[in-house]
């Protein structure tokens, strides 16, 4: 049996949300098969399994937040063994190690041993301490270790030597979780049926454990006080509903399989949602009984308007990271925003010509493409805009490359992937890169590497019909350009006697920059250069 722990998906992240299991208990998997999708603070990542075998257990529910290094799945690879008894990581076992019945500890200093790789020890009766030498000799006589199998999660399946510490027989038997602040009445060891595997799961994944003399089949007969302290079984949406209605899950007897509390159980405990508006109001009043302050007032107000209530969404993932980044940027970098109206009629004509060009037939050509190219040219003329403020070193870092960020609205929130070395690309290459990045972002499959290292950003608010705004600078950069909607407007063209009003394609550009390192003159010259290229794309040939 092998236990797979959540690896670091990238960028030093410490946790991830488990989105979807791709396998179920009993499914057969091969090395590098995708078994789960996890959502990090930056993207959705598909994780392959580094083992081959049959899925023995899924240890984490969908929707749960899991810390890196937490066991999430157990694979039966045919080597025998059972689910872990002590939750510890162990290495591959030989026949002698299996005979001791305890989880082995990896040899100290063994190269290549990683916490994400675990071999689960076999269950069974324990040997006495005097048999340790015999077990060690059997392990030494084991056949040679096989070669590592290349996998996709950053490490291979490595079989290492293992040593086993002698244990008393009573310590091999399973334990029962209890709350740390409660002193139980029974503090002695328990002999339980280890073959059931129930005690093993409890012991392996409980933070606090205590030995209990009673059989596991009698553990449901707790006193009311202890029973009330135990964690109620309910899915996250049901817990949210109970919280919104002010219902304590401890007071509800679950009607689902295994005592799981269902949505209907919560509604029934709240007073019955099917009894009409009057019953709903009574339920809200009962839920708010004994409370005071804004939360109690909100419950009453919600039911007064047809029981529409409120919706609470946990702040996590992309939203949590975006919020922290925006607050940090807004209150660290002194923002200055400048606007300019631009006649982009010539740009619109260029876009129409490019759409008919054979070289651009297979890509999407939009005014955003022309703006991206104009930004790269303007950065070359004004490199001070493509910089960052290093507070720790007290230095201004000017970057002689352009990683152009493209802000994309996705179902998961705002993502800003960037095109690496955009200034070195042709128009066709830039079109391909932008199309690929935005499509991947909307699918929620942008990798962390694609969102790191940006130097300057475009946010295309024009697609929502907005003329302009004051965008917040992406952390680690010094400028961001908001691209407003393009619309037909009256505009004065010509000069002198030839001056006249004509309908033209117009847009508004808004540039926010960090005034610590970008002065008003530099920001204005950069914005004017971008506007000049959009008004006359031929300038890009001259300046580029």
Explain the overall architecture.
By secondary structure, the chain is of the alpha+beta class. 27% of the residues lie in helices and 20% in strands. The protein contains 14 helices and 24 strands. The strands form seven sheets. Strands 14, 17, 20, 21, 22, 23 and 24 form a seven-stranded mixed beta sheet that branches. A five-stranded antiparallel beta sheet has the order 3-6-8-1-10, with no helix packed on it. Helix 7 packs antiparallel against helix 8, helix 11 (367-381) crosses helix 12 and helix 11 (367-381) packs across helix 13 (520-535). Residues 85-142, 154-163, 167-196, 205-212 and 273-303 have low confidence and may be disordered.
Low-pLDDT ranges = 85-142, 154-163, 167-196, 205-212, 273-303
Can you summarize the main beta sheet?
Answer: 7 strands, mixed
Instruction: Please state the overall shape, judged from the principal axes of the Cα atoms.
Output: elongated
Summarize model confidence as the mean pLDDT: 74
Name the helicity range. 25-40%
Please compute the radius of gyration using only Cα atoms. Answer: 31 Å
Q: Care to count the β-strands?
A: 24
Structural class: alpha+beta
What's the tally of helices? Answer: 14
* Oligomerization state: single chain
Through-space gap between termini: 61 Å
Amount of beta strand: 15-25%
């Amino acid at each position: 049996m092998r236990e797979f722990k959540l690896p670091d998906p990238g960028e030093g992240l410490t946790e991830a949300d488990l989105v979807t299991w791709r396998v179920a208990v009993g499914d057969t998997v091969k090395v590098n098969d995708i078994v789960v999708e996890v959502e990090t603070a930056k993207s959705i990542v598909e994780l392959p399994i580094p083992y081959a075998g049959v899925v023995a257990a899924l240890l984490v529910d969908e929707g749960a937040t899991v810390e890196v290094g937490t066991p999430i799945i157990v694979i039966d690879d045919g080597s025998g063994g059972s689910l872990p008894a002590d939750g510890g990581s162990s290495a591959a076992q030989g026949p002698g190690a299996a005979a001791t019945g305890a989880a082995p500890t990896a040899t100290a200093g063994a190269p290549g041993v990683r916490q994400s790789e675990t071999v689960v020890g076999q269950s069974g009766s324990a040997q006495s301490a005097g048999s340790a030498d015999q077990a060690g000799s059997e392990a030494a006589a084991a056949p040679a270790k096989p070669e590592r199998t290349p996998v996709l999660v950053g490490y291979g399946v490595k079989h290492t030597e293992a040593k086993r510490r002698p244990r008393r027989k009573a310590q091999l038997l399973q334990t029962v979780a209890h709350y740390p602040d409660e002193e139980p009445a029974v503090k002695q060891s328990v002999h339980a049926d280890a073959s059931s595997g129930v005690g093993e799961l409890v012991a392996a994944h409980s933070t606090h454990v205590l030995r209990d003399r009673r059989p596991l089949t009698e553990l449901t007969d707790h006193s009311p006080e202890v029973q009330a302290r135990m964690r109620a079984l309910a899915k996250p949406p049901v817990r949210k509903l109970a919280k919104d209605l002010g219902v304590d899950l401890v007071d509800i007897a679950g009607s689902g399989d295994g005592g799981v509390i269902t949505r209907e159980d919560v509604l029934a405990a709240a007073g019955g949602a099917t009894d009409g508006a009057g019953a709903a109001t009574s339920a809200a009043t009962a839920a708010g009984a004994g409370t005071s302050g804004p939360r109690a007032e909100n419950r009453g107000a919600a039911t007064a308007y047809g029981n529409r209530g409120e919706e609470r969404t946990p702040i996590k993932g992309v939203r949590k990271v975006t919020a922290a980044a925006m607050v940090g940027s807004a209150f660290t970098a002194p923002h200055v925003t400048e606007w300019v109206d631009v006649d982009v009629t010539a740009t619109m004509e260029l876009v129409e010509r490019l759409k008919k060009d054979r070289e651009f037939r297979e890509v999407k050509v939009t005014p955003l493409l022309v703006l991206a190219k104009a930004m790269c040219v303007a950065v070359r003329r004004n490199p001070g805009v493509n910089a960052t403020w290093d507070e720790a070193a007290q230095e201004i870092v000017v970057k002689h490359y352009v990683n152009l960020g493209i802000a994309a609205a996705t179902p998961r929130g705002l993502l800003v992937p960037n095109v690496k070395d955009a200034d070195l690309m042709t128009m066709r290459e830039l079109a391909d890169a932008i199309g690929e990045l935005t499509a991947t972002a909307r699918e929620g499959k942008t990798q962390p590497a694609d969102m790191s290292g940006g130097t300057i950003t475009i946010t295309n608010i024009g697609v929502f019909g907005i003329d302009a705004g004051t965008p917040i600078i992406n952390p680690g950069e010094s400028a961001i350009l908001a691209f407003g909607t393009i619309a037909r407007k009256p505009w004065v063209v010509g000069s002198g006697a030839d001056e006249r009003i004509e309908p033209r394609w117009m847009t508004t550009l808004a540039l926010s920059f960090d005034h610590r390192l970008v002065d008003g003159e530099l920001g204005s010259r950069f914005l004017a250069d971008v506007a000049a290229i959009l008004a006359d794309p031929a300038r890009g040939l001259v300046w580029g």
